[in-house]
Structure formats: C-alpha cells, structure tokens
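Incident log entry.

Two folding requests arrived from the same account within the same minute. Monitoring flagged them as a possible duplicate submission, but the sequences differ. Recording both here for audit purposes.

Request one:
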Amino acid sequence: MHTDTERCVRAVQSKDARFDGWFYTAVLTTRIYCRPSCPVVPPKPRNMRFYPSAAAAQQAGFRACKRCRPDASPGSPQWDERADLVARAMRLIADGIVDREGVPGLASRLGYSTRQIERQLLAELGAGPLALARAQRAQTARLLVETTQLPMAEIAFAAGFASIRSFNETVREVFALAPTELRQRARPDRRTVVPGTLALRLPFRRPLNPDNLFGHLAATAVPGVEEWRDGAYRRTLSLPYGHGIVALAPRPDHIDCRLALTDLRDLAGAIARCRRLLDLDADPEAVDGLLREDPGLAPLVDKAPGRRVPRTVDADEFAVRAVLGQQVSTAAARTHAGRLVRAHGTPVEDPGGGLTHLFPPATALAGLDPEALAMPRTRRATLLGVIGALASGELQLGVGSDREEARARLAALPGVGPWTVECIAMRALGDPDAFTPTDLGLRRAAAGLGLPHTPAALIRHSAIWRPWRAYAVQYLWATDDHPINHLPTN
C-alpha cells in the first residue's frame, strides 16, 4: 500500500487508524516517522514519505514519533493472510528466529538461501531480516524499560542485543532518547501487578468482538494448561528459553496482558504468540466488508461485527488436541487432553491460580502407550500417527511452515480427515481461508439462514467469502447457543 501515495495521504489527513501497521509516514522536515493515525497536525503532502515497515523508516534515518509510538501499532494483516515466502519470513522473525538462530536459521526453516530471503524482504519491505529483527528488539527493549525496574544491562540482553553499547545506540537512534530518559518519561502503571509480572497492552484494529474469541478458548480449556479466572483467559506457555504464564483480558480498546516469564529473552516471542492466539492483527473492516456482500451473512455481521478466529500459541499442541476432539464432545476432548497433560506434561508453579502443567511436546508423547488411551483403536492409531509425524519432523506446523504442504502431509496420515485438516489449518496454521464444509454445526447454521447446506453446495457458495472463509465459519457457528460463543461471566 505504501506505493499508493494518494491513498496514503488521505489516510494520514483523516487520521485513519485502520491503516496503522499497513504503512508508516516519515516527515522530511522533522526526520520523524509516525503511524497514519498520529494525533499531531498532518504534515504537507510534499514532506511525506511512506514506508512499508518501521525498520525501513529507521534505515532511512527517521526516528519514532513520541506521540503516536508507531512501533507499538498492530502488525500488518498481510502476514496472516498471505502464505508466500515474505509472509512466512515475517511470522518467523516476529517469533524471534533471527535473534535465536540468525539469518541462516531463518533461511534453513524456509528452505531458501539467505541471499534470496534478503532480496525478497528488501524488495517488499525496504529492510532485510537483520534490520527487521533489530526494529523488533528496539520495541522489546522499550517495553522492558517502561514497564519494569530491571537494570538496563539485564534489559539489553533480554531484548536480544549482543552488547550494552548496541542497546544504547539502537534506543537512541530509534527513539531519540537514552534508555534512562525513556524510563523517566514513562507513565507509572497504577494497576495492581504481581511482582515478577509484566503488564502490557496489546493493540488491535476495531471492532473486536470478544464473545466467540474468549468463549471458545475458555470452553475448550485443557485442565491444568488453561483456565478462565477473574475475567481473564490464562494459560501456560512453552517458550524457547523457558516457560511462562499469561493472562489475557478483553478491554474496549486493547487486550490487557499479564506475562510472567522464567526468562525475559522470551518476551518478544511470547507477545507474538499471544497476538496470534487472539488474531489481533486481523483487519475487521476488510473481512466484514466482504462478508456483508452475502445477504445471508450480512445480518450476522451487522449484529456482532469484528469476530476473530481463535487460534493457538502452539501449532503442534493444537494438532494433538484436534485429533483428540474428533467425533467426541467438547467435555470429552478436554478430559482426554487433561489426562495426557497430567501424565506427560512438565509441572509448573502458579501461585494463586489453577495452572499446573505445560502441554507436553510431541517428543514427550512419542513413546505413548496406546493402551493407556481411553478411545477407539482407530483413533488411537490416528493420534499416534500424528504425534510420530510431529516428533520426527515429517509434519511441520510452525509459523513459517508452508500451509499447502502441511495440509497435504496431514491428509496423507491415516485417520486424518478433511474436517481435522481444515481445523488445524484454521487455528494452528492461521489460514484465514480455511473452511470446514462437513462440520455439522456449520451446516445446521447455514440451513437455518436459508443458505446451501450440503458440503458440496456449501463449498460452491463459499467462493464469495474468499479469502475470509475462516471468519465466515465464526459467524455461522455463533448462531448456536453453545458456550464457545459466549464470553464467560465468572
């Protein structure tokens, strides 16, 4: 979008928050870059330059605006919508791969040369993987400086910087302030925060309907791993350097996020996973605008706009849970998953809460005794087949995986049918166009609205919902009076 100058100028002059994260506005006279909705008086169009990423603006010599804080805007919805190399790279960079494994590690996961990845990112985003990771480190550093009283040396290494010197230089360059000045300018957080917990605000594009989003997560929560407590969805997180516990609560203009981490180097990755879980980078205006064009869906969208797709923090975990949930009730699926957790999960401490374990990784479940599973023999075989494929690396469902290849590998596993494949594509792979035409609840909702309701007819009709069919599924499911569609009240 940043190449469409007229459209960008209109967005800046109208302070349109819908475009925050889509592009960044740099001002030649002040050498500052902003988000489109910045509250200051818009500059003259001849003094504006537009960039596709904060990293590109920083590389061009601009510093972040202190008023609108463009580095804290929602991410671009393109990286969830698209499935090409650039989108996969951006999801991996957000997850911290470059900081942990370098550009060669990023290239290895994507199956391309480092040179090809550099070329593609520079062409589309105006910055290479190192610059994009650096911009993310700067944002992580600012969060730690402003929300904790940690020594600056600890913050530098927790944010991913190789030295205190590079930390100081980057913060000064990006924010035009020394780290100590950033801390002095920060408004003290007067909310009650448990010691050792980070209190953050996760931004999103409005509107956001929390009912099915948090309702689904709470209704399907695995005992010991997830819970709804005091108006927040809480769960344990398995992270590269350690583990964490997060509490997420919906607010009118943000998601309240409380994070407790055993290693602060996991902060950026934990935030990225929480954002993916709640689908916070979605563009509801684009999604709802398209779905309203179908007269059958329009009343549902108008009644409760801004529905998101509840996703996951761990794709492998969701794949295991999806198989456990085949042909059984929500309660039965939770029971099966809870047994696996108690038997194979890593115990954690949660003072004042009810979380007890991390969900076991596929490698920990690889030696599972099939006789210990209280389910039909064929489903046991399916579960063990999925676990084995995940543990061996034959099946890869991470944020940088190729969606179509993952679909094909899933479908080739015995006992994994189209419904399971599409559920995993929707919630684990984050495909916004995933669709489950054989789902009974979906077919019942379609029939009630007068829409075609046989699988074949639904597939044909769903062509008008593309590329947002996963969101159409959420609106159709919401017609049922099921706990997954209601925000918990206790």
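Request two (distinct sequence, not a duplicate):
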Amino acid sequence: MNPDDPLLAILACPLDKGPLSLLPEEEAEGAALYNPRLRLSYPIVDGIPQLLPSSGRKVGADDHERLLTRLKASAT
C-alpha cells in the first residue's frame, strides 16, 4: 500500500470509524495504519490491512509522539 492508494481514503478504524494514517515500513515493524485518536496501530500483511478490532496494537505515549512526528514530516 502506498500513500497515493485510493483505498486509503475510504479505510476507517473498525472501532471509531475515523480515518487512518499510513505508516511506512520500518525495519522491525512493517507497514501499518494508525489511528492517533485511539493510539492503535493496525498491521498491513502482504499488502492487506488487518482491520479487525483484535488486530489493533495499543501504542504507548512515547511511540505515539514519535509516530505523530513522522506523520507530520511525511505530510510536508
């Protein structure tokens, strides 16, 4: 999945139904969709977003701030 993918505009968090942000791949984690409102990260496995509520991984405060910084940097 890439930032220009039209699917990204219609994907929503299964819990709050709000928009998700694409997090590019990192060495250890892989690509993911992030909900900053609930601080949940949903993995993308083989190009398929895993959007079951049980797939969401809670993100700690430090990681949340780091992810917000990355998202702001990629938006510019």
